[in-house]
Amino acid sequence: MTTQAPYPIGTPGIPWGAAEVAAWRSRQHRQRSYADDVLGAIDGLSARFDVVEYGRLDYAPDSYPQFALKSRHWDDALPIMLVTGGVHGYETSGVHGALQFIDRHAADYAGKANLLMVPCVSPWGYERVHRWNPDALDPNRSFHADSPAQESASLMRLVAPFRDRVLMHIDLHETTDTDETEFRPALAARDGVAYEPGEIPDGFYLVDDSEHPQPAFQQAVIEAVAKVTHIAPADAHGEIIGSPVVAPGVIEYALTSLGLCASITTARYKTTTEVYPDSPHATPEQCNAAQVAAVCAAIDFALAHRQA
Which residues form the active site (predicted)? Predict the structure, then answer.
């Protein structure tokens, strides 16, 4: 029997204070460039889409502008489709899948839908390949009133004028092996609780809203992604990451009570994608393509069932 080594920061059983957060932050180092990877791509898209700077994250000595892209010929008579990526900055295909969709497919929806697209919500986390922001807060548990996470608060301000007009919101994520080796152990240490090991599913899956499920919508997305990469099977307990599988590749969360990004609008159709980039059966290109396929299928379904 092996025993999990204590997380290297803090005292087991005692939640972190400011000193532990500072110690954790000192261990995080820039590994890639938001300016090169994301802002450069957005600049290249500015001739085709309206670019909106909707916030700025000041994490001394760094400062990160936050950008959204909008359909150039916005028409209030058309439904709004919201695409978000990089809420967890380390989830690479969420960012690059969103950028790839914008570059290759967003123009296909001109005159059919208004697109509001935010490819990288958490640039500090993107650069440091981390789930949290510098305050050791998870932006994807912080979408609620008076959010302490700047990333979440600024995105909610951007979306507020459209909140009740969005028809579809798809939020692009990944589940990685580091969820078990780093992020969940860090979370347990931060909160002063025991770490309980879990199982990482091998494949793509979706998270529906348990309070307003849309099974046909979820299944349409799964069917489209299955042409690109494999769908995660249920584990021996009929679950994926501890939640019952309600349909092939689909689980449900209470989005609003958990403060998840997919709860920020009243959209009829909403989903969170989860790609598995560490699978021996998937390449980075497939992961990006899976995100793109999911976005296209989600928009197509919402348009086809707009009057449902």
Answer: 274 (proton donor/acceptor)
